[in-house]
Design brief:
The protein is of the alpha+beta class. It has seven helices and 16 strands.
Length: 346
């Protein structure tokens, strides 16, 4: 029997709805703070001590690695006053201009949208609209960076911030064909946080995207209760691929594990923590040890994220009546890892 985990669909809020987004997360935040707690299992000193002992070989290094080289960049932060309406960025034959346009009704008098225009050797190639952000206060970042060595030009990264609670960067990559004659837009999709930067993680001249894997947020605990492993994407032949498991990025996974362990404390929600912790250990080739550790400490009373659907969800992402199934946390976690691409061995 096929069992699918029930999931919501990520979407970028419309401009008016973002004003009310804070209220949408108020209840989960209160739950995490304990105001409406369901008495979840909490980490004690024994848990934290064993966690650190099992990972002592990883805790000798730094939890934050150097950021690496920065490509040509232009950005506008939300603290900046709106004194200009256009920006320019260029490198070699690539020229980028960013302008601001007023949003459509009913927000035309409130919101401004960043618009990027790309030219190659003076020839216009693409025009891309970013997401609306704060009223009269658009937040964006543009970079020219080598992300896909399989074509003759560097890529253009265009990332805007939608605003709202726990949301979102809206990031597009402008990349050329292998012969350099045409360009296309590759959408990354919404990612938690502000504008997303491309980073050269291993100083090889190729830039990647790196962020905490958003699939873990709200899955087995509230937003603030969830840990997430380090997630890395590369652009290859015009498509984004998951490069998290590549050996060259191991130092970043060690640093991420270090940060996860530093976050562990006595009042921590157990299952939200363990889901991200085990996944990070999987990426370090230490999944079996972490799985046994999870089995010892997981919260057997919490049912957050354990309701699954035994058939395919409908177009709205809802499970048909009578097809819901409640799994144990280990069962749900194993299926979640399979769906998310984490290769668990026990």
């Amino acid at each position: 029997m096929e069992i699918r985990r029930m999931t919501g669909r990520t979407r970028i809020l419309s401009a008016p709805a973002r004003f009310f987004a804070v209220a949408a997360v108020a209840l989960p935040a209160l739950v995490c703070a304990g105001f409406f707690a369901v008495s979840p299992a909490r980490a004690g000193s024994n848990f934290v001590n064993e966690l650190k002992a099992r990972n002592a070989h990883h805790l000798t290094g730094k939890s934050i690695l150097p950021k690496g080289k920065q490509p040509p960049t232009v950005k506008r932060d939300w603290e900046d006053r709106l004194k200009r309406e256009s920006w320019q960025l260029s490198e070699g034959p690539i020229k980028v201009s960013i302008t601001l346009t007023k949003g459509g009704p009913p927000d035309a008098m409130l919101f401004l949208t960043p618009v990027l225009s790309l030219s190659i050797e003076g020839k216009k190639m693409l025009r891309v609209e970013g997401s609306e952000s704060f009223p009269d206060n658009p937040v964006f970042l543009v970079q020219i960076a080598e992300m896909d060595p399989g074509n003759p030009y560097k890529e253009v990264v265009f990332s805007t911030y939608t605003g709202g609670a726990h949301c979102c960067s809206d990031t597009r990559i402008l990349t050329s064909s292998k012969d350099g004659k045409t360009w296309k837009e590759v959408e990354l999709g919404p990612i938690d946080g502000g504008p997303l930067k491309a980073r050269d993680l291993n100083d090889d001249g190729r830039y990647e995207f790196a962020f905490r894997d958003n699939a873990f947020l709200y899955t087995f605990g509230c937003y603030a209760c969830s840990t997430s492993p380090f997630h890395i994407l590369q652009l290859q032949d015009g498509k984004l691929i998951d490069a998290s498991a590549k050996a060259e990025f191991r130092p970043h996974h060690v640093a991420s594990l270090h940060r996860i362990i530093e976050w562990a404390g006595d009042d921590m929600d157990m299952n939200g923590f363990l889901a991200g912790y085990v996944a990070q250990k999987i990426l370090l080739g230490e999944g079996p040890q972490a799985w046994k550790f999870m089995l010892k400490y997981y919260d057997r009373k919490s049912d957050w994220g354990l309701v699954n659907c035994s058939v395919k969800e409908d177009e709205k992402g809802e499970c048909p009546p009578g097809k819901k199934l409640t799994l144990s946390f280990p069962q749900a976690l194993e299926r979640f890892y399979k769906d998310a691409g984490y290769k668990l061995t026990k």
